[in-house]
Amino acid sequence: MAVDPWLPVGTKLPDGSSCRVALLEGVQWQIYETVEGGRALVVADALANRWIDAGLLTDELLLRFDFASPTLRTFMSGPQHALIALEGARSPATKAEAMAFALALRHTRALEKDAGLHDALYAERISRLLPVWSLSTKVPDDVVFGAWLTGGVHVSVLSFRRLMSLLTWLGRTHLREVVEAAGFRVVEGGETGADRAVGSDQTGQVAGGDTLGGPEGAQKPFRLAGRPKLEQFFREHVIEIVENTDRYRALGIQFPSAIVLHGPPGCGKTYAIDRLVDYLGWPSFSIDSGSIGSPYIHETGRKIAEVFDRAMKAAPAIMVIDEMESFLSDRQAGLGSGVHHVEEVAEFLRRIPEAATNQVLIVAMTNRLDLIDPAILRRGRFDHVIEVGMPSSEEVGGLLSALLAEIPSDPGIDLRPLVDRLTGRPLSDVAFVLREAARLAARAGRVKLDQESLLTVLESVSFKDGNAASRRIGFSG
Length: 477
Description:
Elements: E1 19-25, E2 29-34, E3 39-44, H1 45-53, E4 63-65, E5 72-77, E6 83-85, H2 95-111, E7 121-123, E8 128-130, H3 141-150, H4 160-166, H5 172-181, H6 228-243, H7 245-249, E9 258-262, H8 269-280, E10 284-287, H9 289-292, H10 299-313, E11 317-321, H11 325-328, H12 339-357, E12 360-366, E13 382-387, H13 393-404, H14 416-422, H15 427-443, H16 451-460
Parallel strand pairs: 9-12, 9-13, 10-11, 11-12
Antiparallel strand pairs: 1-2, 2-3, 3-5, 4-5, 6-7, 7-8
């Protein structure tokens, strides 16, 4: 998205350099590329003073200049040092880059204990993450670090096995050194169940810039806000078996059975699976039409086999089959592409039981259960076929309450108008309304989410059905 620059091209900055183009912006800051090849962070005086008060920057590093009212300040960075916003940043290209960020995270937490860092600015020159104190939902440091290392994947650095599967270029020993440099310690659990943090607390944040505080082996419980029944299903049929292997194995239950989630678009299938993947921390593999489909004879079947082989080699692991009707439609209904479609379905029929035997949990999603080949849905392949409908009023209320608990908000906010309007809508609409309300509150200079901002968004947001062209950037005209 284009940035509306505060400073014209060629503006002279206090150090003598000149602005070339505005690259990034927030409510109280903008980052410019300079003619000399470096970068300049231009920040409102109020935000600059918060950084100084927190000890993250000194007054000498923030050069003041009276270009506009209110007074602006600049922090300069040369081309050899990163000066970027964490949101949307690319992953590091070298171990040195990863290590530099790890040390910046640790140094920052030694000075500022509470501020969320998920939308901070990374100033490599001074080894700091500069929080902007927005009203967006706070993210634990272990997930902030994981997202930066992977270029945006929502994964905790404490889920070491999954992290290794995403960062194969770094290597186990080097990755462990990077994670520990940030103040985290991990156990590489070869057993079933999620990798556990040694000395981790409920938030996963670095305590005093050192190792994590809290009881050894602690892990946040599995939560699926807005979907209590689906949460209970995952607990009973997946997590209980994974975390109590010996008890279930004694009665012949070796591993969780494969699962199908079906329901209309927007009902929350992908959201639910992402939360399960995050909790377990296993390597995850995906089969979808974009990565597997091929017009060449036998090529799709070969790619399917390769994904299964990689998943079984990395086990315990999760395999997610998206839009399963693309591969597993009824062979008798004429929906496939002839003999080659039959070959692809046969590959799945053979591989799914094999995967379960080799500790690969398969979770598939579809909007059209009626198109799936009956042989795929038989017991022994997919034992659980779960319908996920649009959320009820209780589920919408539960998600709203969970999301509000994570951001500063006025006490006594009345959720009933939101629940009434959002019942039956996709869960993504619920999260969107809160994000937009938080943005309006921040723009108005408020420090807490308030009822007025929520009602303003609720009245202006468009919930028209149909394609994206029927909406104006999410608002009615």
